[in-house]
């Protein structure tokens, strides 16, 4: 089965420390992948690079791998939030988010020389 990716870039809101944001997001990512269709999640600290120099502010990236149609886990997540199975912090609406749905194009590439 082909797995799709859902990428979520975010930045914590003003007044929320990186430590508090990371602590919350680690638990939140685990809550998310308990929904039907998710396969895995991995979190990253992201920083733009020009040449070999890091520039700009740090961002947070959550990379979710899922199987099937995105609407399945979106519907499940929405229901879990509405039922209070997942409780979001009061500062959640202030998080700066951007997200992308990614579907594989072609097969996975690996080095031919190994």
Outline the structure in words.
Helices cover 25% and strands 39% of the residues. The chain is of the alpha+beta class and 114 residues long. The chain has a single domain (3-102), classed as Alpha-Beta Plaits. Strands 2-3-1-4 form a 4-stranded antiparallel sheet. A hairpin with a 2-residue loop joins strand 2 (38-50) and strand 3 (53-67). It is flat and about 50 Å long.
In helices, the fraction of residues equals 25-40%
Content of β-strand: 35-45%
The CATH architecture assignment turns out to be 2-Layer Sandwich
CATH classification class: Alpha Beta
Q: TL;DR of this structure?
A:
With 114 residues, this protein is α+β, with helices and mostly antiparallel strands.
Give the helix/strand layout.
Elements: E1 3-11, H1 18-33, E2 38-50, E3 53-67, H2 70-82, E4 96-102
Antiparallel strand pairs: 1-3, 1-4, 2-3
């Amino acid at each position: 089965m082909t797995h799709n990716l859902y990428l979520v870039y975010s930045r914590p809101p003003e007044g929320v420390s990186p430590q508090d944001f990371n602590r919350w997001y680690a638990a939140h990512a685990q809550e998310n992948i308990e929904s039907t269709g998710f396969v895995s999640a991995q979190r990253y600290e992201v920083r733009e690079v020009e040449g070999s120099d890091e520039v700009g502010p740090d961002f947070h990236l959550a990379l979710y791998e899922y199987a099937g149609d995105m609407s399945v886990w979106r519907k499940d997540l929405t229901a879990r939030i509405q039922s209070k199975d997942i409780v979001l912090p009061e500062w959640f609406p202030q998080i700066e988010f951007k997200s992308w749905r990614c579907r594989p194009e072609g097969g996975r590439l690996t080095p031919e020389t190994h």
